[in-house]
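can u do me a favor
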């Protein structure tokens, strides 16, 4: 039975959030709601809606144990250890391992605006290139307030999402398969190099898999237990995927709908089975009626939670899928494809250029952006491929679970086939939980076979073998991968962000000259960073020719000159005119060939 008062309270919270952002009704007390109030309405409305739609009488499925056994305690203890491992890998050396803002300056700009404007409409796009809501930058602003205006503060939210997704994968895999597979899946996601990587970057791509995985897990529990609360939570989680990266916004509702249809057909109890409520009485409603009610609750929750986003976008006359519109293939491409005859070969061209690269990116094709994940391997490392393939084969033995995992990967590949840059790793983060579960299924199948034929007890085989797989993947990521990645993410010539990192120790009022012929110079990035860190410096960009012909008026301030180390003309000029020589290189984790040489003039005027 639905808790109507609680449900109505949740709807009112979400309605108020929608009107604060959409501003269609001009309600005075809903104009310019504070950022904190809007976030509280989203969180409060989600909790109230889940609790209200979950109902008062919770039916439980056959065989659900009311208390924890010793085996449960062992499993949860192991899971806690896995979560601690995941936390360590996602927070260790978070500031310096990748000492570079990797497409994170959009989020820096968002935080700067949140600091200045306490009543931003959080559901509008915080940047028209990255057309996502302000929710993730808002959470980052809180993290920055705790950890400081640095890379740790920017990335700690992503690390938290990454760790929580490991726990969510455990819940999903346990519902689909069994406890051992769930622990293996959680561990393999914890040590999965791409997931570690995106958990260590301050971008919102990492948020979608958490809510999407939880949505699928609760829906699966709903199919098994028929408890309305599971359907309500599943719907709420699908609704929350609408507040972050557009890939998850499109993928998880479609995946949830397709899989709900399969689950409704496949997960029916045997004839004559009755469900029992928590007080011990039997329910008279048949399974079909319970299932339809549960799916209706899930759909209603998802629509109500996601509605404020679309109410805002429609009010602002902004396309619902702006990112897809900007990055997707044009209408003419699809018209030609659909209207072409079989002998024109357009379908073969679509397969070769659009669909095959996303599929290959799972197993053989490296990140085509060379920027978001980089490296020279596909998402799955070569020595993990046999387990992935074996997992696919074994998953098909479980029709419902196997269909979910296969659809998950296929929908991800199909979605990426709709856009021009279709093998960028940042757009595959939504699929990482499915990859981890499939590899876990494969590992478990091999371990079970080894336990049957080996004289060594299985309890020794599993931890040794799994530890080797984990250590190998972590060693690869923090070793060869990051070494190559730190070169790939820098511009072709030099790292311009590094000049602002090094300027944090300069005295207030310092005038900084960046003297370079680098054609890739992008002035807004160092300017945003200097504002983010509150630096009282002036940035001047000049070519060597312009610098040589210009006049520097020496005053009561410090001067910092960042020069390419092989720019002998500028170095000679600084030495002849101002007596500067030598110079220093970056103390941070920057490849030597990507650094500028710093020559610093300290004013004789006293510091004030």
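np, heres the sequence
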């Amino acid at each position: 039975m639905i808790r109507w008062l609680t449900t109505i309270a949740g709807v009112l919270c979400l309605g108020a959030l929608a009107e604060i952002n959409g501003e269609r009704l001009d309600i005075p007390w809903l104009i310019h709601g504070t950022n904190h109030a809007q976030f509280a309405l989203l969180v409060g409305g989600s909790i109230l809606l889940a609790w209200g739609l979950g109902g008062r009488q919770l039916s439980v499925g056959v065989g659900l144990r009311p208390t924890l056994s010793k085996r449960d305690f062992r499993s949860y203890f192991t899971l806690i250890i896995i979560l601690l491992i995941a936390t360590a890998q996602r927070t260790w050396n978070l500031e310096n391992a990748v000492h570079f803002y990797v497409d994170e300056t959009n989020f820096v700009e968002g935080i700067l605006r949140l600091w200045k404007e306490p009543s931003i409409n959080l559901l509008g796009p915080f940047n028209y290139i990255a057309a996502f809501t302000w929710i993730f930058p808002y959470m980052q602003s809180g993290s920055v307030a705790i950890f400081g205006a640095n890379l740790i503060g920017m990335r700690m939210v992503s690390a938290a999402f990454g760790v929580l997704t490991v726990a969510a994968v455990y819940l999903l895999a346990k519902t689909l398969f069994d406890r051992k597979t769930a622990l293996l899946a959680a561990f393999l996601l914890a040590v999965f190099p791409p997931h570690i990587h995106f958990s260590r970057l301050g971008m919102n791509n990492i948020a979608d898999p958490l809510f999407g995985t939880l949505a699928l897990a609760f829906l699966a529990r709903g199919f098994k237990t028929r408890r309305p609360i599971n359907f309500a939570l599943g719907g709420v989680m699908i609704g929350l995927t609408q507040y972050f990266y557009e890939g998850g916004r499109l993928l998880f509702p479609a995946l949830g709908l397709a899989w709900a249809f399969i689950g409704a057909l496949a997960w029916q109890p045997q004839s004559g089975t009755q469900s029992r409520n928590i007080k011990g009485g039997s329910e008279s409603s048949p399974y079909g009626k319970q299932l339809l009610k549960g799916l209706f609750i899930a759909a209603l929750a998802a629509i109500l939670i996601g509605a404020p986003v679309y109410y805002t976008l429609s009010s602002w006359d902004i396309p619902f899928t702006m990112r897809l519109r900007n990055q997707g293939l044009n209408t003419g491409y699809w018209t030609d494809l659909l209207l072409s005859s079989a002998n024109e070969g357009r379908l073969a061209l679509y397969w070769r250029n659009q669909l095959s690269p996303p599929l290959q990116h799972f197993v053989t094709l490296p990140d085509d952006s060379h920027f978001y994940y980089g490296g020279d391997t596909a998402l799955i490392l070569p020595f993990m491929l046999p387990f992935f393939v074996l997992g696919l084969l074994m998953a098909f033995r479980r029709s419902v679970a196997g269909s979910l995992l296969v659809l998950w990967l296929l929908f991800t590949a199909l979605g990426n086939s709709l856009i021009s840059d279709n093998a960028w790793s940042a757009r595959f983060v939504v699929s990482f939980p499915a990859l981890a579960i499939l590899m876990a299924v494969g590992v478990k199948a091999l371990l079970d076979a080894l336990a049957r034929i080996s004289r060594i007890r299985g309890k020794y085989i599993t931890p040794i073998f799994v530890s080797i797989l984990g250590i190998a993947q972590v060693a690869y990521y923090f070793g060869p991968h990051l070494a190559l990645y730190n070169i790939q993410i820098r511009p072709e010539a030099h790292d311009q962000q590094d000049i602002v990192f090094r300027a944090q120790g300069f005295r207030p009022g310092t005038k900084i000259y960046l003297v370079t012929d680098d054609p890739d110079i992008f002035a807004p990035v160092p300017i945003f960073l200097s504002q983010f860190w509150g630096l009282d410096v002036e940035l001047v960009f000049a070519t060597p020719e312009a610098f040589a012909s210009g006049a520097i008026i020496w005053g009561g301030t410090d001067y910092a000159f960042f020069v390419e180390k092989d720019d002998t003309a500028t170095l000679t000029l600084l030495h002849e005119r101002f007596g500067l020589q030598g110079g220093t290189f970056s103390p941070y984790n920057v490849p030597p060939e990507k650094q500028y040489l710093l020559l610093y003039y300290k004013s004789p005027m006293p510091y004030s």
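The chain has two domains: 4-485, 497-601. hope that helps!!
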